[in-house]
Design goal:
By secondary structure, the protein is mostly helical. It has three domains: 2-129, MgtE N-terminal domain-like (MgtE N-terminal fold, Alpha Horseshoe), CATH 1.25.60.10; 141-261, CBS-domain (Roll), CATH 3.10.580.10; 278-470, Orthogonal Bundle (Tetracycline Repressor, domain 2), CATH 1.10.357.20. The protein has 23 helices and six strands. The chain has helices at residues 2-15, 19-28, 31-37, 43-50, 55-63, 67-76, 79-88, 91-100, 103-109, 115-125, 132-135, 149-159, 184-189, 198-201, 215-225, 245-263, 278-304, 307-312, 320-344, 352-382, 385-415, 425-448, 461-470; strands spanning 141-144, 168-172, 178-183, 209-210, 229-233, 239-244. The strands form two sheets. The chain has a three-stranded mixed β-sheet. Strands 4-5-6 form a three-stranded mixed β-sheet. α8 (91-100) packs across α10 (115-125). The longest helix is centred in the C-terminal third of the chain and has 31 residues, at 352-382. Mean pLDDT is 84; it is low at 452-471.
């Protein structure tokens, strides 16, 4: 609300070319708040405001705009001025920006960038998407292992202006191999021993990731060790860059969104919902809807085999939705728990036996509880005890089948190298629906085949129970 109220004042300052107030506006607030206040401005107006900010502040403010607005500014403003802004950005952020922008615009901007920045952009763009190399930054503190504390502090002061972070200082040898890490606090506290070499201070047991490691694995490792940044190395253990905690947050959010979309039966969107065209959305949703529709047709074919039994015992139709929903819901719960467990690292493939055992027990407990409710409800609705017994036995078996299917299938997908989230809730529900129908009808036929006479009424449960057992 506050940023909307501030827009007229901003536009008035622009109309009057009020340089003093515009400079104060760009510097007085946190860059995130400054960007928030400018949300309602057009790309041209935002760019005019940014011209009154210092280059380093301009880059920070620009970084807090949504990616759609950043791309719009990049594509519509003066190429030379935009190139100067891109050169100020951190390596990973500018690569992401240029990948989202129109290729023709990028070709115009690239020659205007310094040669070192061009080489860095091309190198980072060469790494496969969703790998550590694609999300790392090449701005990090790198110090030689033979430097003394005094020399390291001098070198660090020279590098500091161009670095994204100073959490960790990475120690390398003459061939750029990662040898260890020293914290900034550790270096400062060693100022009383200025001739101590970094090789004596550093932690040599450094946790690093390979440049081609999946970004989800990188995020999990950072979360596990509670790092602020993690080094990225190649096959020869040469230091290439770092993945910082803010990039890890972006990765985790991206992976969570993808998993949520897959769990809902939607192919992951490459762009935001509003930026994705209706035709692309229709394709990504329609693909899975078609697969699930085919699964539903299979359920219809399964029912078709039991039409004769349904005609003879018409009350079976009443409880088909109950059976299907119980199996599908239990399967969805198990699948969601296992998928999230695999995503967070709480569940490993080697834990498959424990998972199956737990889901077997839960299936029996949940199925037993629901079967008792089903026994009473079905007996009252159908008017006889046998109907309740059929539904109760079916619910126990279907819930058990749902919990086992929902837990085993994501583990199987993980084992063969696919994303467990592909085994989405609708997909599990489709499988369990088919199995539920088959189980329901076969249980009914088996139990009803024991009697050729009409089942006893609900009012005669207890008196008829011994006779039913005898039959």
């Amino acid at each position: 609300m506050i940023n909307t109220l501030y827009l007229p004042e901003l536009r008035e300052m622009l109309a009057e070319n009020n340089e003093a107030e515009l400079r104060e506006f760009c510097s007085a607030l946190h860059p995130a708040r400054t960007a928030e206040f400018m949300e309602g401005l057009s790309a041209d107006e935002i760019w005019r405001v940014l011209q009154y900010a210092q280059p380093e502040v301009r880059e920070e403010i620009f970084g807090f705009f949504p990616s759609e607005k950043q791309v719009e500014i990049l594509e519509t403003q003066d190429r030379q001025e935009v190139a100067e802004l891109v050169a100020e950005m951190s390596p990973d952020d500018r690569v992401d920006l240029l990948q989202d922008a129109d290729e023709a615009v990028v070709r115009e901007i690239m020659p205007l960038l310094p040669a070192d920045d061009r080489r860095d952009i091309l190198r980072l763009q060469a790494y496969p998407e969703s790998t550590a190399g694609a999300v790392m930054t090449t701005d990090f503190a790198k110090l030689g292992e033979n430097l003394t504390v005094r020399e390291a502090l001098s070198e660090l002061s020279r590098q500091a202006e161009e670095l994204e972070t100073l959490y960790y200082l990475y120690v390398v040898d003459d061939a750029n191999h990662l040898r260890g890490v020293v914290s900034a606090r550790q270096l400062v506290s060693s100022m009383t021993r200025p001739e101590t070499r970094l090789s004596e201070l550093m932690e040599s047991d450094v946790t690093a990731v390979h440049v081609l490691d999946d970004q989800e694995e990188v995020a999990a490792k950072v979360a596990r060790y509670d790092f602020l940044a993690i080094p990225v190395v190649d096959d020869e253990h040469q230091m290439l860059g770092i993945v910082t905690h803010d990039d890890v947050i972006d990765v985790m959010r991206e992976e969570a969104v993808e998993d949520a979309q897959r769990i809902a039966g939607v192919a992951p969107l490459e762009e935001s919902y509003l930026r994705t065209s209706v035709f692309t959305l229709s394709w990504k949703r329609g693909l899975w809807l078609t697969i699930l529709f085919a699964a539903a047709l299979t359920t219809a074919f399964a029912l078709e085999r039991y039409l004769k039994a349904i005609e003879e015992f018409s009350w079976l139709v009443l409880f088909i939705p109950l059976v299907i929903s119980a199996g599908g819901n239990s399967g969805n719960q198990s699948a969601t728990l296992v998928i999230t467990g695999l995503a967070t690292g709480d569940v490993k493939l080697r834990d498959w036996y424990r998972v199956v055992r737990r889901e077997l027990v839960m299936g029996l407990l949940l199925g037993g509880f629901l079967s008792l409710i089903g026994l009473v409800a079905a007996s009252l609705l159908a008017g006889d005890f046998l109907s309740g017994a059929v539904v109760a036995c079916t619910l126990l078996l279907v819930v058990l089948c749902g919990t086992l299917s929902g837990s085993v299938l994501p583990l199987f997908f993980k084992r063969i190298g696919l994303d467990p989230a592909l085994m989405s809730n609708p997909f599990v529900a489709g499988i369990v629906d088919i199995l539920g129908i088959v189980i329901y009808m076969n249980v009914a036929l088996l139990m009803l085949s024991f009697t050729k006479h009409p089942p006893p009424s609900a009012a005669a449960w207890l008196p008829s129970l011994p006779m039913f057992l005898v039959r």
